Structures are given as C-alpha cells and as structure tokens.
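Usage

Read records sequentially. Each one opens with the input sequence:
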Amino acid sequence: MLIKEMNMEQVEARLAEIREELKAEGADLDALSNEADELNERKSEIAKNAEKRDAVIKKVVQLGGSPAAPAEKSAEEVRNSKEYISAFETYIRTGDASECRSLLTDNASGGTVPVPAFVEEIVKTAWENDKIAGKVRRTYLKGNVKQGFEISGSDAATHTEGGAAVSEGTIVDGIVEMVPQDIMKWVSISRETYNLRGEEFLRYIYEHLTKKIVKAAVKSLITKIDACTTVATTTQVNVGVVTSTTVGIGLVAQAMAELSDQADNPVVMMNKSTWGALKDAQANNKYGYDPFEGLEVCFCNDIAAFSAATTGDVYMIVGDMEEGAQFNLPNGDDVHFIFDEVTSASAGMIRIYGDQMVGIGVVAPKAFTKVVK
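and closes with the structure output:
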C-alpha cells in the first residue's frame, strides 16, 4: 500500500514495525529513515485534514445545520482497527464473536469471523517461509478433496491420410483423497504472558504455534511419501526408489533419473547430517562435481540421517513439491485455540492448544524418488 493511501492506524503500525527493524543487524538505516519521514508527513497530513473537517462541522452546527455522518469504514479498515483487534483477542480467548460481529460492516449475522490482516500475514508467512511447505501447492476447498491421477495410458498415434483408423486410447485412472486432519500443538505460558493484550498477545500465540503446526504438516507429508510404493494403486500414486548402503557422489543424479517428465522443479530433502556425509564424499575424493546437481537442498530432520538409518529407511527424497504434493486447508488460514487455565494452575502456567485442519496428499505419479538404505 502506498503511504499516501494509509490511514492513521496503518501509519502508526508501520512506524512500530520500523522501530523493530532498526534493531536488526544490517538494517538499511537510510531507507528506513526516509520511510519514517514520509510516514510522519502522512501522519501530519491526516491530522490537518481531521482539523479542517472539525472546523467545517463546527461552522455547520453554528449555522443551524447538523454535522455529516462519518463515512462508513470498509470491512478491511474495520478488521485492522484497534477496536476490532481487541474484540478478536476476546473471541480467541472466549469463543464469543459477538463483539467482532458488532463491528463488522458485513458478515454481522454469521459466517467465519475474519482475522485481522496481521494475523492472516503471520499464518501465511509461516507456511510460505518453511523451506518445504512453501513449495507445496495450497488449496482452500471445503471437506474431503479428491485429486485424480493417471496410473497408465497409451500414447497418441499419428494418422496418415487414407490410412487405417487409429485405435482408441486406453487410460487407467486413480484418485487420491485428502481427508482433513486436525494438526495440534500446545505450549505452556506464564500468567504474565497470558495477560498480554491486543496485537501483542495475538502475535505471540500465532507466531509460536503456527510454525509448529506447519512443521507437523511437513512431517506428515514426508511420512506419506515414504508410504508410497513403486507401483501405483487406484488410491495411491507411485514413487521412484533408489537403494544405496553407501553415500555415493551420484545419488541425487540416480534419484532424478526416476522422476517423471512433469517433475520440472525438483529439490533435495534430507537431514543435515546426510548433507554433511555427501559433502565429505565430495571432498575426500577430490571431486569438483556437485553431488546435488545444482538443486536446492531443503533440510528436514524428520528424514532419518544416513548414519542413523537402518535397512529400508528413507534418508533422502528428491522431487517436485509443487507438482507432487498438496496441502488443503478447508477452514482457511485460521488457527483454532483453546486455553486451559486449570491443568497447570499450581505452577502458575496456562496451556494454549492451537490446531488447524489440513488435508495432505501425494498427488502426482513419480514426482518423488526415495533414497533408502
């Protein structure tokens, strides 16, 4: 959003962000300083416009008229206002959405209670910034989602003029069903933290718990890839498999050779320990060859390290996350919270449970290759 389009609350929010950004090592002080100057100018402009409006209203009243009703705020302005953020905090703590609904210009009688924009951004950022989750296609479809895939099919044929009719093609389809599962994480916080209010409190709980939920979704996806076999069924896609009891310099290349033509943007997923073993193999043999084939490496410690893997364990996955995997969030980006003030009361702690419904699927044949020991 352009600074000249911001309202007072948005200006104040951005100035608060700048104050935090200035603390970071390597911050662009000149750029932040210039932006702060522009924001303060906008702040002064808004204040002057408000003074002019008040003066006009005063004149109208003195002349026997009545002041014009204030312009109705848009739904976007409402959900980003301090009043709505405070009401949303109450809703998160108690489940009572009446105060939120009374402030909304639409959706006042039912439906989903919209989250403040900064909350929505926290959740989206948690999914997008995760090295693996950020590469997976996300959808927001209600209920169970069925994703079709082709198990086998015949190729197209070339027909010559006057020649025999082309035979009918054959195709065998399968369907992956993504059933939403409730991914939950809980933490204990002190009463002092629980007594935070407004945006500060919402940022704390969303930032802490959403990242944990995303990590759990990635772990579940890894488990589903591991469960796929080399032969597709009507309910499960197939994956390639490379078996190696040694960390060879050509492992990634072998795994890539098992991928389908549609897996255009593969990455390598592995434990950091396995990455170190591959780099050791490269250095010890004085290879100039890149063992990762120039692919991005996404670290995931939910994948067994080569050194700890036993026979049959997966210690590396190569594949195209966008082509081969899908996260479906039927309830959108919202996270549901439950507050337990009883269980740990004697220790002065409060438990916060956060959960999000996520359907997880491996949806494309041979989009992944498992490297197993």
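Summary fields computed downstream for this record:
- Residues 77-114 form one domain.
- The first helix runs from residue 8 to 21.
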